[in-house]
Amino acid sequence: MSGLLLFLVSMVSLGAIYAMLCVALNLESGVGGLWDLGIVSFFGIGAYAYVIVTAPPAASYQAYIFGFEAPVWAGMAAAMIAAALFALLIGALTLRLKREYFLITTLAFAEVIRQIFVNEAWLTNGVAGIYGLRPPLREAVDPSAYGFLLLALLVAGLAIVFLVTRHMVISPFGRSLKAVRENEALAITAGIAPRRHNLKAYVVAGTISGLAGVFYVWYNTIVTPGQYSSDVTFFVWTAVIIGGLGSLRGALVGGFIFVLLHDILRFVPVSGEAAATVASLRTAVIGLALILILRWRPNGLFPERATVFGGAAPAGAKAMVSHNA
Amino acid sequence: MLDVSSCKLSFGGVKAVDDVSLRVEPGSITGLIGTNGAGKTTLFNVISGFLKADAGSIRFMDRDITARDPSEIAKLGILRTFQTPVGFPRMTVMENMLVFSRHDRDRRSSPFSPARVPAETLEAASAILADFGLYQKRDVWAEDLSAPDLKMLEFARAMMAGPVLLMLDEPAAGVNPALIESLASRIRALRDQGVSFLLVDHNLKFVCNVCDRIFAMADGRIIAEGTPDEVIADQKVLELYIGKSAKTDLQ
């Protein structure tokens, strides 16, 4: 199997994980109007919860005290439950605030959580992280083919997340979320309680991010605090903005485009000395793409579109219109 | 129906609502008039729960709603409108309607309730939109509507919600004078279907024409109440609208 193909499989796998995060962020921040800069919190909590539940007990050179070796499904459930509970806790506190105040607190909470990963070594093995984790079905196929199996799992996971989220967006729940985003006072007069409604969206987005964290562990076979810095939050926001904030398709495509942009420089043939310099240009490429998008397509590559409903025309509709026009 | 008794609300030293009591009888159209800054909109905000009164109580259909959450008050059947009818800008006209539908109200709390909108709900919304001349624009974003269309959409949303008490904040503002009479007849038609009204407007002719009873406010207090004829003949109301010195000059 050629190296390029392997590389491509790896990129698409990473793209699927980012797309999951984008879909989650789009639900709360695109469809809902929450300026959440803490999406990485639940990504990290999901990853760590999964590892704590499924990892084998610590080897002599490691320090964490848990490691239940539970089956994969139990780990996934634990990840989603832990992410949901933390989202409920953090959301109940931060959603009292609006806009930039909400934004700064969620950013701060994300950093607090990363510091917990670093400092509570009894739980997380600290900065070194926990590694050598076995992804599911590792023994089922030939090691050289495992990349394809993992890709299939990730794409299936993404498909489920996308369909569930799509359902929520087009249901009365999503419509109410959009109503709060568009005009909070008017939404209240329709009987919507904005804070409670936003909290639900926040918890759902957190749960999905937690699940994405599980997939990220499968992809990396290692978990370290450094993977869950706020860079991830900003990357996901960039991806959603490039795709089109508020647009389901945009969120889906945005994650893949982001990974492509981020890793496109790997194809530039450079000498060993220049490699570090070129690698540091990655974020510059992303920044440039963001500037170009905001300049020429401010609503993203796939802007949010009007939702169209079918249904028969009422009797006399035309006559009334011409009368009123 | 609605009973406001001795409500007070101050902002710093300003008594925006100062010991206000008023009643809206079932099936009536009650008007609230007064100059700018009289406290009419503040009183609207207090009744609908957007602001909490410092003192006094508000009862609606024999229930105390004084300290209730505004979304809870809305669910009890009080629908208030705002002076600027922007709607939900980046939602279609039809979505603007559906947010106020009974269908959405009953199903919005769960993210897993069915996504499909039943045909009856769409048809009901379409019929109301057609009545207000908005059916052809049902798939257009509200931000792309003209100001008069936004005003019509506001009434259409109110019809969709099917409230028990409809509180209109300046319904005639920005309405083409030629269409004000049709607005009045729509309000009367809804009243005949059992909806009660509390409305604020600066257009005295419109208010006197449509209302059964009027309360006049000045500096946060009710200064007069009665039938339209009684209120516009009231000495204090005359002074308020024409001015004391102007009136003595005229005499």
TrEMBL record, chain A:
The keyword Transmembrane is assigned to this record: yes
Topology versus the membrane: Multi-pass membrane protein
TM segment ranges: 6-27, 34-53, 73-95, 116-133, 145-165, 201-219, 234-262, 274-294
Keywords: Cell membrane, Membrane, Transmembrane, Transmembrane helix
GO MF annotation terms: branched-chain amino acid transmembrane transporter activity
Any matching Pfam family: BPD_transp_2
Localization of this protein: Cell membrane
InterPro entries, per the entry: ABC_transp_permease, LivM-like
GO CC annotations on file: plasma membrane
UniProt keyword annotation of Cell membrane present: yes
Protein name, per record: Leucine/isoleucine/valine transporter permease subunit
Provenance organism: Methylobrevis pamukkalensis
TrEMBL record, chain B:
Top-rank taxon: Bacteria
Any one Gene Ontology cellular component term annotated for this protein: plasma membrane
Protein name according to UniProt: Lipopolysaccharide export system ATP-binding protein LptB
Originating species: Methylobrevis pamukkalensis
ATP-binding recorded as keyword: yes
SMART domains hit by this protein: AAA (SM00382)
UniProt KW keywords: ATP-binding, Hydrolase, Nucleotide-binding, Transport
PANTHER family given in the database record: CONSERVED COMPONENT OF ABC TRANSPORTER FOR NATURAL AMINO ACIDS (PTHR45772:SF9), CONSERVED COMPONENT OF ABC TRANSPORTER FOR NATURAL AMINO ACIDS-RELATED (PTHR45772)
E.C. numbers: 3.6.3.-
Organism lineage string: Bacteria, Pseudomonadati, Pseudomonadota, Alphaproteobacteria, Hyphomicrobiales
One Pfam family of this chain: BCA_ABC_TP_C
Alphabetical list of InterPro entries matching this protein: AAA+_ATPase, ABC_AA/LPS_Transport, ABC_transporter-like_ATP-bd, BCA_ABC_TP_C, P-loop_NTPase
